[in-house]
User: What shape does this take?
Amino acid sequence: RVPREESAHLQIGDARVELSDGRTATRRAADEGDRDLVLVDLALDFATARRVAVARADVCSDTALRQVIGTLQAAGLAVSPIDDIAGMAVLRVVSMLINEAADVLTQHIATATDIDTAMQLGVSYPRGPLAWADALGPAFVARVLDHLREHTGEARYRVSPALNRRRWSGARFHD
Assistant: This one.
C-alpha cells in the first residue's frame, strides 16, 4: 500500500472522488486501498465547467458510481463516464503539452510568456501551457507524467528538464 498524499477529495456516498493523477483508477484504488474510487478528469475551471468526465476503478461498485454521477448531475453537470485509462483524456493531453512547452523553454527557443502567447493566439488555447503548469503546480504535472511513463513504458512521457527543475525547486514558469 502506497501512502496517499494529502489531497482534496469529495466523499459522495460510498465513493471517494479524486482528480486524476495519471494512474488508472484501478491502479490508484489498489495503491491507496480505496475500492470505491472514482476519478475526475481535468477541467479548465471546475467552477464554470458544464461537463466532467469520470472513470471508476474496476473494483468500484455500480452503486458508488451511480451516487457520484447522480450527485454531479444534481449539481448541474453533464457527466461522461469513460473507460479507466491512465491520465484520462484532458489531463493526459494537457500534461504532454506542458511538457513540450517546457522543452521549448529548455532549448531557449522562446520565453515562457512567448510560448503561452503563441499557443493562445496561434491555436486558441484558453490558457497557455506554462500558465496551466503554474496553476496545477509543476510537481503535480511531473508526477502525472511519471505515472503515465510507468504505466505505458513510453519515453514520450519523460519529464522535461525545465519541468523537473521547477518540480524540485518549487519555482514557477511565470513570476
Remarks:
- The chain has a mean pLDDT of 94.
